[in-house]
Structure formats: C-alpha cells, structure tokens
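#lab-general

N.A. 3:47 PM
ok so I finally got the sequence cleaned up, no stray characters, all 288 residues accounted for. can someone with queue access submit it? mine expired

B.Y. 3:52 PM
send it over

N.A. 3:53 PM
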Amino acid sequence: MLSHVKLVKFIERLRSKLYSIYVVRATKRLRNKYYFSFIDLPPRVHQVSLETIPLQPKRVLAISIAFNSPKTIEKQLTQIQEFCADDFEIVVCDNSTTNHSAREIQRTCDLQGVEYYRLPVNPFSGKFHAMSHGSALDWVLKNVITVRIPEWILFLDHDVWPTSEVDIPNLLEAMKNKSAHGIVVDSSDGWYMWPGFLWIHCASQNLRHLSLMPTLGVTDTGGEGWHTLYKFLDPTLVSSVEVGFRKIGKGDSPQIDYIQILDQQWLHLINGSGWSDGVEKYKRVIDC
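B.Y. 4:20 PM
back already:
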C-alpha cells in the first residue's frame, strides 16, 4: 500500500500532467471566464440601476473594485474628487464579502455622489483572491463597460489614488496613439498587465472577449488578458507605468513597510485591505 507521502506525490504528478493537457487548460479557462455569463442580472444588481447609466459618459471611466474596506474607498473617492475633475468619473463596484462593509461603502458613495453597484455573490471570495477579483472585473466588463463604452477605461485597486492634480485632457493627449497604459508583467504564458492601475483605450479595440481572470500559468489577476486581448495588440502601442517604491516602515515587508508611487502622482498603498483598512498605513505615509 502506498504511504501517505507517496500518495500525495503521485496525486501531484497526476494533477500536473492533467494540467498540461490543452483540453483541460482550455476548459478551465472557459470556466473561469464565463462563470458570470450564465447569470444575467443577479439579485443584488437591479436592471433599473443599469438603465440609469448616463448616455454621454466622461472620457475616462474609472472602475474601483471595493473589498471590505470602507475607509480605503472613502479616501480614494476623496482624493479623486479633488484631483481628477475634468473628463473623469468613477464607479465603485463592490465585491465585499460582508453586508456591513457593503452598507458602509454604499453610504460613502451616496455621500460623494458616486455610482455604486453591489456585485453578485462571488464563489471565489475567501478562497481564491485573484479569481475573486478577476471574476468581479469580468462581470464589470460585461455589464457596465459595454453599456458605457467610454473613450478610456481605468481599472483601479481600491487602495490606489492620486496625490496631486491629474491633468486628464493633457494626459489623454499624450496617450492618444496608445492602446493601453499600465504595469506590464512577463510570464511563461505571455505578458499581461496588472489591473490595479490599468488604462485601456476602448475606442480602438473590441473588449467583448477580454477577461482579467488568472490562468493556470499566471496565478495573478489579469493573466488571462494575454489570451483575450494583449497578444493581438501592437506592443509599440502599449506604454508602461513609471513605478517607484517608498519605504515607510522599519522592516522589509512590501505589505507593511513600502508603498508604490505610480507615474509620479498616484499612490498605491499595497494590501490596503489587510492593514487596518489601509488607513493606518496611510497615516504612516503622511508622517514620513
């Protein structure tokens, strides 16, 4: 009889071989991408709310995926209202796992006049963070982006916000010949772009098949983007975000002791949900 250790190793080898089979990989990719496609309008998202979407949206539509962190969303919206006035609007799509957090986030959005959608119950939440985030983004692509059809879409993590005035008209003029602008990540499956700060020019490409789920080869959110969009883009039309790091703590943990500075005027807390709603970490940024 096989020992427990040998049995585990045998199962892992078998699992690895199965994953290498194209049909299995393709099936899992379709499962991940189209999970929400079979759910037209889940109970938590009402048709009437989607019908109130403005027919003439701003040039930039920012999508923030909220997740159990009301104070972080409050800070993000406050900063955006102050520094992104022209041709810019933000919609909060709530992927929170608790109703308490969702109510607080909705209240914040109502107070700041920001559109809010409570996303469908997500089967991946609490189990697979990247799949939870990716499936939420895919739902937004299908149900919000295709209705709005803005000139540019900006995907934002909820702990990313501007720290100085963003001249949207000049920024769009500088990116007028680009298809996308973001943080490019290389992988064995093909490069992809982190969807926590990702600009995509909607007017120049068809986003109907875009998926931002992870893949078997790329466990981070956005890995599926290579197969569904990026491999069809001219690489010369994709620009990279300037990324800098700032140390704010005494240790070496990226989640606790560092923040990112994106394009010199956007702050990424890094793991805003896991550090006292991100707000305590932000206070340390101010103290520095």
